[in-house]
Amino acid sequence: MPFATEINPVTGTLDDTAADLLVLPVQAADEGPAAVQGVEEGGLGRALPAVLTDLFTHYSLTGKAGESVQFPVSRDQGLARLALLGVGSGSPDDLRKAGAALSRAARGRERVAFAWPASLADGAAATAFAEGALLASYTFTLKTAEPEAAQRPAPAIDVVGDAPAEALARGVVLARATALARDLINTPSQTKDPAWMAERAREVAAGSGLDIRVWDEEDLENEGFGAILAVGRGSSRPPRLVQVSYTPQDPDAPHVVLVGKGITFDTGGLSLKPNENMSLMKTDMSGSAIVLAVLSALSAVSAPVRVTGLLALAENAFSGDATRIGDVLTTYSGTTVEVLNSDAEGRLVLADALGYAVDRLGPDTLVDVATLTGAAKVALGTGTAALYSTDDALAERITEAGKAAGEPLWRMPLTEEYVPTTKSRVADLANIGTRKEFGPAGATDAALFLREFTGGLPWAHLDIAGPGRSMKESGILTRGGTAFATRTLLRWLAGA
Fold it and tell me: Which residues of this protein are catalytic (predicted)?
């Protein structure tokens, strides 16, 4: 199970619960903070050390989302703690922040009860609250010792009152999919090679009712996946391509193909990375983990579209067999590519998968997701992903889904004047920019390169190199892979 915490909708009031941490929401308002669900006159209300308005003043509370204080209260069941938790305006974004703050404040507690704001009938807010509470409780560890009791997530958070149960359950589904992707991303690469990822995909497919096909290195050779093979050639652990398919009740539903970059470890190949950059590279298969996680949850969110996921898996290592600088490879689509930097390998494996999708799968829409370029991180930082698209309507829908998920995307231009930089002197394309007069436009160079393999279909490219990793605990994030875009893609595919 990815979480130690469960989210349980419960009827009644805080007075009815036996939790050892009771949480009262406080809303921000122009006239000052206010408890958005009152405490009963008897019971807990009688146990308060002061009236709520005095407590707000004493603790300088504003009701800002995630703001919290705790103090002891005496109850018939014994001593407990009461937390006042800011929920801001009550928007989904604010409830997600509040859920994350609650989860962190609840560490070391046995049971937590949160009074759902009676004024909030918005299902989106309940979904966001469950996402925040669960994702902030996510942990990944290979330590042999148990965590200190004070650091253990609470086993249960009871959401007391009239919270929409279906919306809470939807938030649990979205969070669990994200946790699946995070688990895959955070697994050390000594374990996580392409074959291991393919086996995890088989397990997910079996558990989710999905169809699956796996290409091993011989299959890839026989069917002409020259780019995936070239990237994986330097490793003793050969590449794989995995296809996972979801079919809704309507067999004539629109068909979306999701493609995920799956570099299970990236040394840079012969264009060797410095150690400080290489230390993060077990997460360079984030795109493939996200695609697999999205497929795993499509049935649970009743996605009305047909979806095929392609995981392009390879380990980019260096050896006597590694692809050399200046080598020319032939992709699945027949396009030749000169390799001028072996550390620009993600776009190569994506090119083969995109070319296969266009040639064999007949999609209506193509979307790829990848920790692709440091340039995207330089442009947008670690809080926002770059979105490139050939279709305005597609870009708008994905952007709106990102807003709903709290995963911001910024659309970047596919600048036509930069197209010459994708050209090679000796092949159809080069895998890095070849023209200096355009400046260091690495993220756009990569997007323009990928566009060559999309067959003119509506296409979106999510470069999550910035927000794909977190170096600290913050909000819903813990250190390591974030699985950014999992919840965005699920919302988009589910149509909400």
Answer: 273, 347
The catalytic residue among 75, 96, 240, 347 is 347
Phi/psi at 11 (5° precision): -80, 165
- 472 labeled binding residue: no
| 284 appears as a binding residue in the annotation | yes
Higher pLDDT, 471 or 262: 262
Catalytically annotated residue among 64, 104, 273, 435 = 273
pLDDT score of 39: 58
Strand partners, 88: 27
Reported as a single tens digit per residue, the pLDDT across 376-424 is 999 999 999 999 999 999 999 999 999 999 999 999 999 999 999 999 9
The answer to whether 250 is annotated as binding is: no
Is residue 273 part of the annotated active site? The answer reads: yes
CA 174 remoteness from chain centre = 10
Question: Does residue 68 contact residue 86 with C-beta atoms inside 8 Å?
Answer: yes
- Global pTM reads 0.96
Bridge pairing between strands 112-115 and 21-27: parallel
The per-residue b/e assignment along 377-415, b for 16 or more CB within 10 angstroms, e otherwise, is bebbebebbbbbbbeeebbebbbebbebbbbbbeebebe
CA 251 to chain CA mean position, Å: 28
Q: Check if 347 is active-site.
A: yes
Per-residue pLDDT of 107-130, as tens digits, reads: 999 999 999 988 887 899 999 999
- 309 to each of 135, 136, 284, 357, 416, how far by Cα in Å? 24, 27, 17, 10, 29
Q: Is 266 known as a binding-site position?
A: yes
Res. 3 pLDDT band, cuts 50 70 90: low
What Cα–Cα distance (Å) separates residue 138 from each residue in 39, 126, 162, 257, 285? 31, 19, 26, 29, 19
Window from 164-168, 169-173, 492-496 with minimum mean pLDDT: 492-496
Confirm or deny that 223 is annotated as ligand binding.
no
| 2: confidence class by pLDDT, cuts 50, 70, 90 | low
Length of the chain: 496
Residue owning tokens 């795109």: 287
Q: Which has the closest alpha carbon to 22: 84, 98, 104, 95? A: 84
Backbone angles phi, psi at 236, to 5 degrees: -80, -5
Q: What is the DSSP letter of 461?
A: E
Q: Which long-range contacts (CB under 8 A, 24 or more apart) does 326-330 make?
A: 327/230, 328/424, 328/426, 328/427, 329/226, 329/227, 329/230, 330/224, 330/226
Cβ(385)–Cβ(412) under 8 Å? no
